[in-house]
């Protein structure tokens, strides 16, 4: 079931059917996706029914049973809601979806259309469908397109020529596609083998691969730079569309626990280990232009330069958004130096003293004296949160890999899937078919970039 209707984008007119059944059961991942879809649809219905009103303290959203909930936005642009759904799961609840729909001013279809769509998202208990061919068009086309596009871009990988004796090697293309297939399935180890077998049967990979082989590749640190290059590559069709970017980081948790000292009480406990994904996102489409994965101790500021530089390699940046964690003169200076404008909120103890960075003072004055104008730009930062939400709700936020290099690559596989899905969504928006894309590859900027650049890989066994 594809989210062709992410917040922040145009609303699709057609009904998207939900019929994601394997042997009569929805799997956990697809169930989670459809719950999330229903929250969104319910939110859009609330917005359409004009149940949202703005007050001094925030937005009051009247729920379907008459209950009222308060949705607030803090100074960093984070939404929260007083409802139970939000407090328990911390997921974007239907009330926040409603507020976002009202704020974005998107034109919603009629109430009856929305209700029909909501109904279609109800979990079905229907007769068994034995194989993938029973997926609905919407479902199978996203999955098919994802792997076809992936296969196409992976064919740009230049395989290493030298072979070392004694060790069987598989093409890196196959390894990458199988890794993405495993991550996309949200299954671990042996349970993903069936999905990888189907990828072989469908011709996405050239040979059958054991799950252990896929795991071997998943932990290779060399795969990190290849995956990062692929993610950046898939963002390049958007170079003429995206000029405003939003940066943030968010955690992905692992199954491992590590010792953790609670300073307050002086006792040592165990805490779940997690990794941080730092991303820079184009605010119109939610495409991820740059990415870095670090451990949870890394600060956001430290990763700014790497991400911003990577973004500038492909994009012309007019405005760079980030929350208060990025509020340093160095960062303001770097953004200004590229010709872009920094939209980063100041903290209470910031002063307007430029200390040589004049854009700091300029933005400080705008922030203090014309908050409305500042926020007019800054609200676009929400899109980076939407992007993390899309990523986590669709591809999962708990990592299956046990080694750190495996975890890094696993997050990158999720991000690659996200970017390809954004690309597919835009294909639909532009009303082009995938066949058009491959037929017209000479005239597609996307393919030009691929052809000009290629992906050169330094790779060793
Ligand atoms: Zn709520």
Describe the protein.
The protein has helices at 28-48, 84-89, 94-104, 111-120, 137-154, 172-185, 193-201, 211-218, 222-235, 300-314, 329-337, 358-369, 371-378, 382-395, 404-429, 434-439, 445-453, and strands at 52-55, 58-62, 68-73, 79-81, 244-262, 267-282, 288-295, 319-322, 341-343. The protein has 461 residues and is an alpha+beta fold. Among the domains are: 1-135, no CATH class; 229-389, Nucleotidyltransferase, domain 5, CATH 3.30.420. It has 17 helices and nine strands. The protein is 46% helix and 15% strand. A five-stranded mixed beta sheet has the order 7-6-5-8-9, sandwiched between helices. It binds zinc ion. Zinc ion binds next to helix 2 and helix 3. Residues 69-104 form the SWIM-type domain. Keywords: Metal-binding, Zinc, Zinc-finger. GO terms for molecular function: DNA binding; transposase activity; zinc ion binding. It comes from Methanococcoides methylutens. InterPro entries: Transposase_11, Znf_SWIM.
What's the SSE blueprint?
Blueprint: H1 28-48, E1 52-55, E2 58-62, E3 68-73, E4 79-81, H2 84-89, H3 94-104, H4 111-120, H5 137-154, H6 172-185, H7 193-201, H8 211-218, H9 222-235, E5 244-262, E6 267-282, E7 288-295, H10 300-314, E8 319-322, H11 329-337, E9 341-343, H12 358-369, H13 371-378, H14 382-395, H15 404-429, H16 434-439, H17 445-453
Helix pairs in contact: 1-3, 1-4, 5-6, 5-15, 6-7, 6-8, 6-15, 9-15, 12-13
